[in-house]
Amino acid sequence: MAGKGGATPATYSPSPTTDKQKPALFKEDWVRPDGRGFHQCRPAFFRTGAVNAASGSAYAEFGNTKVIVSVFGPRESKKAMMYSDIGRLNCNVSFTTFATPVRGQGSDHNEYSAMLHKALEGGIILESFPKTTVDVFALVLESSGSDLPVVISCASLALADAGIMMYDLVASVSVSSFSKNLVIDPVLEEENCQDGSLMITCMPSRYEITQLTVTGEWSSPKINEGMQLCLDACAKLAKIMRSCLKEAASDSKE
Amino acid sequence: MWHASAPRTSGMVGLSLGEKHFIQGGIAHDLRCDGRKRLTYRRISVETGVIPHANGSAQVRIGGTDVIASIKAELGKPSLLQPDKGKVSIYIDCSSTAEPAFEGRGGNELAAELSIALQRCLLGGKSGAGAGIDLSSLIVVEGKICWDLYIDGLVVSSDGNLLDALGAAIKAALCNTGIPRVQVAAGTSNDEQPEVDVSDEEFLQFDTSGVPVIVTLTKVGRHYIVDATSEEESQMSSAVSISVNRQGHICGMTKRGGVGLDPSIILDMISVAQHVSAQLINKLDSEIASAEAEEET
Questions:
Q1: Can you give the pTM of this predicted structure?
Q2: Tell me, what is an example of a GO biological process annotation in this record (chain B) (predicted)?
Q3: ipTM above 0.85, yes or no
Q4: If 0-12 CB within 10 Å is exposed, 13-18 middle and 19+ buried, where does residue A6 land?
Q5: Does B252 touch chain A if contact means CB atoms closer than 8 Å?
Q6: Is B2 in the A-facing interface, judged by CB distances under 8 Å?
């Protein structure tokens, strides 16, 4: 509370804050809100085994973006489903009501659910669990930029924790473009005023892209640069994820 | 809503093993079942002004694929976060007349996927840069009144390559769209909602030169093709849709299909899409121009 000089607090009146504080994004001396370099990711934190009831689960924290993913199954597909000799993958992404700055509905996010499904299905060996379904439920506890890439990386870690057979861990990173600059792993403030974004989901050991999306206008050299940035960052991210899995495995042995 | 991995593409088209090999072999030899080469389109025909109730509309046929796009403009209020911009929304409907599998909620998943892909390809980044439709041109009174553009697409008949067809139909419909001229009554104070007079005689045209076209490259075997039919789509391993504008810049990109792609292949696809799109834009523009001329006579 700002008790300035002990004066009686004035009655609250909404002041017309018309001076829109647009971040000076196009200046040369622009620094990112959290002081990172343009090509520097936020520190990533992963932990497996966040939910006891699930077959596998993981928690991820990238700066203020916090995500929890649980994986259930493989379990019997619903009766209404047709017979399928490959396994089914069921993805659902939802936000908590307090995840966003403006109180949200806390509802399911259909677009993200579809994207998560498309990003993961290329990495999972669906043939290894015929007639059954694997459910992947992701909950965004706090949304602070790059939500979808964090959800995807965290989900692949949860799948690995559940012992679902995969070709490789799936890592995902996005970049935002601001006129000439490319900024990796954008935070919410940056995402809200970006000119374009590029998200890549890849399996680094196989050097294979399972999903990519681009919005905004990009020239060919810029898209080259953006893809290279993402791929390098994905490789580093996958190393962190792998070491997290190894740590969990060695802990359980002891 | 759930997103289960239903075997959609393989389930709909019943092909025998021989037919599958025939399609795959044809693509490998650069001679497809209907005699086309890998990078040749089917015949494209455009008809504009098909829906009298809309501000703009167009019907696009690419081979057996038939789609309609309609554009309606309504006066609305700009959002608080972006008071200097109008709003555009894109909805796609997959009619069950096109395919029995679209019946009930069956078409919802595909419709949502197409809507999202089109929004991504046409509306640009959050700041509005690179958008095919300039949102700031839709403003009437800043912070008070703007045009809300409702773009609705309908899949009438489906024979593959829906996204490209819908993108072309929306481009044609935008060229066909006339937004009524609005007179704002002078002398209203800052707080009041200004009174407007919507003219029903004078219409303004859109600047559609920045609207990109969408090129979907479908990978079958080791090669990729443009404008795949639904039989060919059933054999795809993955497909990348790239939207390219007249300058050859990428305006959006989405990938379908579960199989991963090598980054170098994607870069290769981008350069092919840039090459193909230049021809497609010219083709579409001449088709749209002749359709517009035909409508006037």
A1: 0.84
A2: U1 snRNA 3'-end processing
A3: no
A4: exposed
A5: yes
A6: yes
